[in-house]
Specification:
The chain is an alpha/beta fold and 156 residues long. The chain has 4 helices and 6 strands; from the N terminus they run αββαββββαα.
């Protein structure tokens, strides 16, 4: 009887922790360049690239689309992305990841992960809005951020 009560008490915790949606953003910070090159990922819906380019443009960046064969060192600031969808009553963005490299070294990332979304109805989000949110967090200061930091530096 006691085991059954303990099991029943733990059941809601198990159900709800198994339905978590995770989002983790490590901001890029100042990149010192207004040009961001994005390596095309043909395995992802074209709307992801469109949303990504739009979000960067709205932050003041110029975006150059590179072929999937490009290297992360082909531009000073280069980004990769991937995303996928699943079906559960409707199609929804199941996972999205954006990585930014400056001079070939990873400087930031944004990940949206609904892989454990299960019964969580919050997984049915507008993918364009979620991508814009991720990019706004990934590039918090926009393209003009490096100019502000440079202008604020003391003269020598």
């Amino acid at each position: 009887m006691t085991r059954r009560l303990i099991w029943l008490a733990c059941l809601p915790v198990t159900l709800f922790t198994g339905c978590a949606i995770h989002q983790n953003v490590r901001p890029v910070g100042a990149v010192g360049d207004n040009l961001v090159c994005v390596i095309n990922n043909p395995d992802v819906r074209p709307s992801v690239m469109s949303s990504y380019k739009k979000a960067l443009t709205e932050k003041g960046y110029t975006v150059r689309e590179l072929p999937q064969t490009a290297a992360i060192t082909d531009c000073r600031v280069t980004s990769t992305y991937r995303a996928n969808w699943r079906w559960d009553l409707a199609m929804y963005m199941h996972y999205a990841e954006f990585r930014v490299f400056v001079d070939g070294k990873e400087r930031g990332s944004a990940i949206y992960d609904a892989t454990r979304g299960g019964a969580n109805m919050n997984k049915f989000i507008d993918a364009d809005k979620k991508i814009a949110e991720l990019i706004n967090q990934l590039f918090p200061g926009g393209a003009g951020m490096h100019a502000v930091e440079t202008a604020a530096a003391p003269a020598q």
